[in-house]
Amino acid sequence: MAGTVGYVVDAGTTVLFHPLLGVYIARVPAFIASATSTWLFNRSITFKERGSHYKSIWREYIHYMVLMLAGLVVNYIAYTIAVTILPNGVYSIIIAVAVGDLTGMIVNFFFSRKYIYNKRVDDKD
User: Fold this and answer.
1) pLDDT digit string (tens) for 94-120?
2) Dihedral angle computed from the Cα positions of residues 47, 52, 98 and 31, in that order, rounded to the nearest 10 degrees
3) pLDDT tens-digit map of 2-53
4) Model pTM greater than 0.85?
5) Domain-by-domain residue ranges, the chain?
6) Fewer beta carbons within 10 Å, N or C terminal of the chain?
7) φ/ψ (deg, to 5) at 68
8) Which residues contact 45 (CB under 8 A, 6 or more apart)?
């Protein structure tokens, strides 16, 4: 579910910004918007029972965003390849974002589970 939310935000933001920034730079605001939306979804729903080991919500957010950079690298490479192969157009951008998101989502899920939401709510410090 978080991946779907992230994809909708990512594709929408990329399509919105690509006329202004181009298909490659439009991924920057799209990454920030989609990673923030998946962080909110993950902390509220996906990993709610696991809990975060961070006391500060801002530290958790910063750590999450830094870890998502690994997925961004994989995502951006796949996206760039797809944009290069597919014909020009909005639908091609939407498909390229999907290709990138699917690859990056796998990396980001495991990083989130291992490094951010690795504490069960009933665990005691």
Assistant:
1) 999 999 988 887 887 777 677 666 665
2) 150
3) 778 889 999 999 999 999 999 999 999 999 999 899 888 877 776 666 666 6
4) no
5) 2-116
6) C
7) -70, -15
8) 1, 2
CA distances from 51 to 42, 74, 114 (A): 10, 26, 12
Instruction: For residues 116 and 29, give the distance between their C-alpha atoms in angstroms, rounded to a whole number.
Output: 23
d(CA 71, CA 49): 23
Residue type present at position 42? N
Closest CA to 106 of 70, 52, 81: 70
Q: For residue 14, give Cα distances in angstroms to 77, 100, 114, 115, 121.
A: 15, 12, 29, 28, 36
User: What is the C-alpha to C-alpha distance for residues 97 and 78, in angstroms, rounded to an integer?
Assistant: 9
- Whose tokens are 């779907």? That residue is 4
Pick the closest to residue 93 from 75, 106, 79, 104 (CA basis).
79
Residue listed under structure tokens 């605001």: 29
Angle between helical axes of 90-111 and 27-41 (0-180°, round to 10): 50
